């Protein structure tokens, strides 16, 4: 299955999602590695088996083995970090912010791909998981590295569309039971 079968699976009422999915993937200005890494990490972060099953083969075909592994690593570490840092940020007791995290996240320092790509993927996962602290942190790293706002926005556009496709298709699967 593929991107086309994913689009054809969307119900008529989600025509905007179908068009947006075509646009954010088919008309993206991102380099192939950034695009397909972002697609893969957001498919994983969406928690939708349908979306991941459909998009993973195409992402894998468009990524080097190192980028494929790095993208999955970004999804994994950010699943942990987003919960940790979002919780610490949301607690009214600011003293938690002074405590050592004590969590291993070595992959961030040595991801096996360009740092900008990994940061973009981490940012996209954080958009889906709603961690403002992580969004700010990764956006600042990207901007300091010279990444334009349009590129950053492209990542969260992809994240928003893939998340919405996952929610829609998962709901349809439940409703059709």
From TrEMBL:
It comes from Streptomyces chiangmaiensis. Antioxidant protein with alkyl hydroperoxidase activity. Required for the reduction of the AhpC active site cysteine residues and for the regeneration of the AhpC enzyme activity. The active site is at 131 (proton donor), 134 (cysteine sulfenic acid (-soh) intermediate). It is an enzyme of class 1 (oxidoreductase). Homotrimer. Belongs to the AhpD family. Residues 95-176 form the Carboxymuconolactone decarboxylase-like domain. Keywords: Antioxidant, Disulfide bond, Oxidoreductase, Peroxidase, Redox-active center. The lineage of its organism: Bacteria, Bacillati, Actinomycetota, Actinomycetes, Kitasatosporales. Coiled coil: none annotated. This is Alkyl hydroperoxide reductase AhpD.
